[in-house]
Amino acid sequence: MNIDFDLIIIGGGINGVGIARDAASRGLRTCLLEQGDLCNGTTRWSSRLIHGGLRYLEHAELGLVYESLHERETLLKIAPHLVQPIKLLIPIYSGGRRGKLLINAGMWLYDLLSLGKSVPRHEMFTAQEALDELPPLNRDGLLGAAAYFDAQVTFAERLVVENALAAQAAGAQVHTYSRVDRILYGARRIRGVRYTDLRSDQQCDLFAPVVVNASGPWVDRVLEKNVKPPLRLMGGTKGTHIVVPAIPGQPRIACYLEAESDGRPFFIIPWNDMLLIGTTDIRFDGNPGEVVAEDGEINYLLSETNHVFPDANLNRKNIHYHYTGVRPLPRKEKKAEGDVTRRHIIKHHRRVARGFYSVIGGKLTTYRNLAEEMTDRVIRRLRHKGPKCQTANDPLPGAVINISRVVDELDACDLISPESRLHLLNVYGSRALLIKELVITDPRLGDEICPYSHTIAAEIIFAYQHELPTTLADVLLRRTMIGLSPDLGRSALPKALDIARHHVGWSAARADEEERRYLREIGRLSGRLTA
Ligand SMILES: Cc1cc2nc3c(=O)[nH]c(=O)nc-3n(C[C@H](O)[C@H](O)[C@H](O)COP(=O)(O)OP(=O)(O)OC[C@H]3O[C@@H](n4cnc5c(N)ncnc54)[C@H](O)[C@@H]3O)c2cc1C
């Protein structure tokens, strides 16, 4: 039997690409297969926080909090262009489930578990100080607040893309729109996978002595077609966010709250010049690709936000869009949704086929550590002699090591507006300089095509040249980030299509098809807001 690779990874979410980057950089011949585009699943439906998870302290998951805080520091270091500190405020109200003393104790423990961190330690505020920090807060019954720092990855999509690019640069093959249909095994050993290239509809077999099922909430679906009797490892819960306009005058401080109606924790987070509000936590057994927000979830998020920011007076008309994802949690039927651990589990299916693994659970925050643990196991299994894991030290491709040099070089290009230069820095980090080079060769490519995100024409071409997209939706929603603008990129669509026709070589028919496809994809983010 031919061996094509040492390792095949199923799934191009944060965990799959993280494993691919680590494995390839340690010399493993690695192939990643993703059924859609990169970041097609839960990763982009998250709250986009790189956080210790204060809530897990209540469940005595000190190990998970410690690991998460450690990883937060690592990501601030290796991806400073994508992951940035954010201040959070926990308002404390009379009658709340968690009083000032308990919250202060939790804050001390959180600080202690993140010793050596780069962000400031927590502070406790009186009611007046809390209002000075965050003026829109409801003052009725306000006793005070705690303030602390965590981190935010505004564009989780870019974190996935950059990990995939780093994996590719280290020698991995990354195939998007490649759906794994069968796990190939015999005599209790894994042999490889059968997948369909969804662009050509061709089926193909690939062989490797290790296969990792990193398909997030799809893990059981990948297993069910291949393992009899079916294994039920996942107990997914769905979570919805709404995106609304920023409250005028609100500083860049997030709010971590206890919901009035049921005491559940939820966030109101300044994000992408808007507010990201979430989330819910409801058991979900359906197809993760078809999960949508329900009216009850939207109402819950609106009314809880109006309770804490009474002058916001939000209603459905204020919602720019909403999104829903499924947490790939381990199956724990007897536990309440919020009590299920967010720790990851690596399951070796040795009774089915040695060398076949599934990744269950985990957080966006801890993906790098998960990838290291998974790659260590693959290396031990293959008795591979390679370098030790370097992903905690090696910066991601766009990491800005010398910020003033990058800013100076960008500023020297007056073909790009100051707003667009800032946007380029926030989305691509030091790789913004490659986009600037495109503009220098053709100044028209410096034109803004989106009034919200300040995206320029050159980015569409850059994406097709360097960042592995297939469809226009891949470019707008998961590369340039136009698609996360308040209008979901609708106003930029004609110009983006025009650039693809003239510079990428699309026919008129292809452009029409791409437009239809894009509108269908964003329809899911703005649909069903009826009641
Ligand atoms: C509402 C919500 C909020 C969250 N907030 C946070 C947060 O703030 N911070 C945090 O740290 N974590 C958060 N999380 C958790 C975090 O988002 C997830 O744990 C993480 O993104 C999971 O990544 P993944 O790669 O395992 O899964 P995914 O991102 O879902 O990736 C799996 C991929 O596998 C692909 N796939 C599936 N089947 C196949 C197949 N047959 N062949 C090929 N490919 C396949 C899918 O298309 C998908 O792209 C949140 C989760 C949710 C739902």
Query: What hetero molecules are in the model?
Result: flavin-adenine dinucleotide
State the helicity in percent bands.
25-40%
**Number of DSSP E strands:** 19
How large is the count of helical segments? 15
Q: Under the CATH scheme, which class of the largest domain?
A: Alpha Beta
Globally, the shape reads globular
Count of separate structural domains: 3
Biggest beta sheet attributes: 10 strands, mixed
Beta percentage is 15-25%
Low-confidence stretches: none
State the distance separating the first and last CA atoms. 59 Å
Structure notes:
It is built from 15 helices and 19 strands. By secondary structure, the protein is an alpha+beta fold. The chain folds into 3 domains: 156 residues, 3-Layer(bba) Sandwich (FAD/NAD(P)-binding domain), CATH 3.50.50.60; 162 residues, D-Amino Acid Oxidase, Chain A, domain 2; 124 residues, Helicase, Ruva Protein, domain 3 (Orthogonal Bundle), CATH 1.10.8. Strands 3, 4, 5, 6, 12, 13, 14, 15, 16 and 17 form a 10-stranded mixed beta sheet that branches. The chain has a 6-stranded mixed beta sheet with strand order 7-2-1-11-19-18, with helices on one face. Strand 18 and strand 19 form a beta hairpin. Helix 1 packs parallel to helix 5, helix 1 crosses helix 8 and helix 12 crosses helix 14. The protein is globular. The mean pLDDT is 94. The site of flavin-adenine dinucleotide has 39 residues, from helix 1, strand 8 and strand 17.
